[in-house]
Amino acid sequence: MTIVVGYVPTPEGEAALTQAIAEAKKSNDTLLVINSSKGDALVDNRYAQEPEIQTIEERLALQGIQHIIKQPVRGHDAAAEVLDAADEHNAELIVIGLRRRSPVGKLIMGSVSQRILLEADCPVLAVKAD
Amino acid sequence: MDVWSSLMDGFATALTPMNLLYAMIGVLLGTAVGVLPGLGPAMTVALLLPVTAALEPTSAFIMFAGIYYGGMYGGSTTSILLNTPGESSSVVTAIEGNKMAKAGRAAQALATAAIGSFIAGTIGTALLAGLAPLVVQFAVSLGAPSYFAIMILALLAVTAVLGSSRLRGFASLGLGLAIGLVGIDSVTGQRRLTFGQPMLADGLDIVVVAVAIFAVGEALWVAAHLRRSPLHIIPVGRPWMGKKDWARSWKPWLRGTAFGFPFGALPAGGAEIPTFLSYVTEKRLTKHPEEFGKGAIEGVAGPEAANNAAAAGTLTPMLALGLPTNATAAVMLAAFTSYGIQPGPQLFSSQGPLVWALIASLFIGNLLLLLINLPLAPLWAKLLQLPRPYLYAGILFFATLGAYSVNLQAFDLVILLVLGALGFMMRRFGLPVLPLILGVILGPRIEGQLRRTLQLFAGDPAGLWSEPIAVVVYIIVAIVILWPLLFKLVRRNRPVPASVVPAHPSEVLLGEDDAIQADQNSTRIHHNSHHNKEKP
């Protein structure tokens, strides 16, 4: 079985990753790390660069967790990518990080977390940054 | 009136609150499009042409000048922080600039680029103010044959010297000249290339052509290449420089200016070649050769000064002779025509106040740019996070609105689309855009000079070389055309030296330094080299 974690290089993303590692250890599952970008801006700070991915890779290897890291750039938003990956790998759990959003911001930009929570076919574990 | 008092009058015009406001808008817009790869000052001025039709010409040109200079400043920010040149003239800046940024010296790199640009821009503008009237004095003595020859030189030089493929350059030039021919011939009343379409009888509006080729073509091109892995931008605080950086920067600034201005003023100069020359010179003269390749401040200071000095240099033939040598100057020249102002040597006498206000506003714009660029560089870098679909949707909207508003004819929109598709195809097949736009703008004027010459000499083509200047220029033209052949002959007779001077700077840079991830749409002039890179 697989655990899917939506990762972004922010405190929320780190919290989600830490939680996902704990879950994966507990159940001895494969961990699928998804870090995506729509790829439509020249600069996207939520898209992890090579050194960051390296760090995660090492961290997961050190913990002895089977893992796959994917960075799809296909023009889909992050929610679609996480849900796609969960479907594809028959995930038993999705882990995401939540951040505080103002109602207006949410109205305009929508919420990735909300879409995952509503549309996922498996349990979703949402964590906050400390 | 002497230069000094004319210039002071210019300042008086440029410093009125309204004109200051336009200068401010210009530099802000210019910096923004400079920062964003793929958007350049030429496109922006083209897009603004219809919008500014209602403005005083003076205000409009003050704004255009701000955009032009602003683009030169903005390009360096992207080069340094993102390793993608924002403009083709800041390709060289990326080499050392990005290495400096990676080594944690982004603030100093940005500072030396901004201050160097300011100093070079100011010296360049002063040279422009001093030299342009002299060039005019010389130019008014020239007759139609000499003009014809000089314009031929400008077209050929831009086509043959810039860009990596002569064939593509000439193909593009041919397209431009053909577009310029459309309409009723002013002398004989004959219809040319109108295909029986009465709407084409007036010719293609230069604004529509420029907007289509620059804005629509670019937007379609970007839309076709929208998705790419996002790059990492190096975070930076407020730019500043230490004492040591000043000591190492001031000489490169001055040397860069010395390279930039003359090359900008030459018909085929552009801003790319002097930046490259400046980089090579700094590399040879530096006291810190070990730092080159790892982030030497000289390698940022020199080229950045060179491209701003070149910008000022470009305006010299544009204002004094009516001869544009790069895309932005070409579009500005089109703007003169659309205001009903005849560009050429008579411009200084017929539109003196406008020209001097324009030159004065260049000084002002330069200072404004320094003020907004030094503290705000990190903010400008944020522009790069803008999702490009929104950006290009906006550009397409403005392009359509602008093209329609010129003549309020739906037919112009058809032309916009057709030429936009042409612009897209040109980018797809690596045809440079500059020869086309120069062909469209200079083509009819060259024809006019040719006809005047032939009429003066009763149809005898010998009249074309009846002036000594014309003969000299034709010899230069011959050298430009035959250069590859001569080069080959010389090489065959002599053993090849170890380091052959590169025919085209950016090609070498792209080849030798993989670190420059040239964006496929960042440097319009060098498309073909990008193609090779994209298709491994």
From TrEMBL, chain A:
Highest taxon listed in the record's lineage: Bacteria
Pfam family, one: Usp
InterPro entries reported for this sequence: UspA
Domain UspA: 2-128
Protein family membership: Belongs to the universal stress protein A family.
PANTHER family: STRESS RESPONSE PROTEIN NHAX, UNIVERSAL STRESS PROTEIN UP12
Protein name: Universal stress protein
From TrEMBL, chain B:
Ranges of residues in domain DUF112: 20-438
Signal peptide start and end residues: none
Keyword tags: Membrane, Transmembrane, Transmembrane helix
Transmembrane segments: 20-39, 45-69, 109-132, 138-162, 169-186, 206-224, 354-377, 389-422, 429-446, 469-487
Pfam families: TctA (PF01970)
Protein name: Tripartite tricarboxylate transporter permease
